[in-house]
Amino acid sequence: MKKLTLVALILSVIALGASATPTYAFSWNWKALRAEISADKQDVRGDRQDLRKDQHDTNLDRRLEVAGRRVNRLKHLYDLLVKWEGKLQARVDNAKNAGKDVSAIQPNLDDMSAKLADAKTQYDAVVTLVDSLKTSTDKTSVVASIKNDFKTILADLKAAKKDGKEVRSQIKSLGY
After folding, report:
1. Per residue in 36-94, pLDDT tens?
2. How far is CA 37 from the centre of its chain?
3. Residue 30: CA atoms inside 13 Å, Cβ hemisphere, count?
4. CATH of the domain spanning 41-174
5. Residues 6 or more apart in contact with residue 131 via CB below 8 angstroms
6. pTM, full prediction
7. Which is nearest to 156 in space by CA: 117, 104, 115?
8. Based on the number of CB atoms within 10 Å of its own CB, is 62 exposed (0-12), middle (13-18) or buried (19 or more)?
9. What is the mean pLDDT of residues 1-16?
10. 99 — phi, psi (to 5°)?
């Protein structure tokens, strides 16, 4: 019964001639609408700029964190090489005390020591730069400088390791 009354209602509305297009009881205030849209665009632009600045700061913070980890890694590598240098020096001294000719070995060991000393000096400079990065206003150039210094320190450590391997092979050839 309810379905029939609903159908009858719809048919009576159609029969009365209800129009298919609705009429609006108000008109648009186009100037106010344009002003609101313009203000919204300005808000979006400001939000976008804030997001870019936040992303830039986040990237710099991430770079600072990576720089800190690299500093720790380089310090660890430096400490290992210094310890190894001490052991090599002890082996050279033992060979010298036993009467072996170590004149060909000592320059390589001295070169290794010099490279390690250079790496330590550069490491201290990088630590200072990383600490200054926390308060620096021009962080981008400081990060680039730190990156180049890391490459230099790593090259010195690799060269020191190469010299150490050469010293080790020369000491082994002497039987020590």
Report:
1. 888 888 888 888 888 888 887 788 778 788 888 999 999 999 999 999 999 999 999 99
2. 39
3. 0
4. 1.20.140
5. none
6. 0.67
7. 115
8. exposed
9. 60
10. 95, 10
Per-position DSSP letters for the chain, written without gaps between them: -HHHHHHHHHHHHHHHT--SS---SS---HHHHHHHHHHHHHHHHHHHHHHHHHHHHHHHHHHHHHHHHHHHHHHHHHHHHHHHHHHHHHHHHHHHHTT---TTTHHHHHHHHHHHHHHHHHHHHHHHHHHHHTT-S-HHHHHHHHHHHHHHHHHHHHHHHHHHHHHHHHHHHHT-
Q: Backbone phi, then psi, for 103, in 5-degree steps?
A: -65, -25
Question: Taking the domains of the chain in order of start, what are their residue ranges?
Answer: 41-174
Q: What is the pLDDT of residue 14?
A: 63
Sequence-ordered list of residues with C-beta below 8 angstroms from that of 167, at least 6 positions apart, any chain: 88, 92, 105, 108, 109, 112
Neighbouring C-alpha atoms within 13 Å toward the C-beta of 155: 7
Contact indicator for 127, 73 with CB cutoff of 8 Å: no
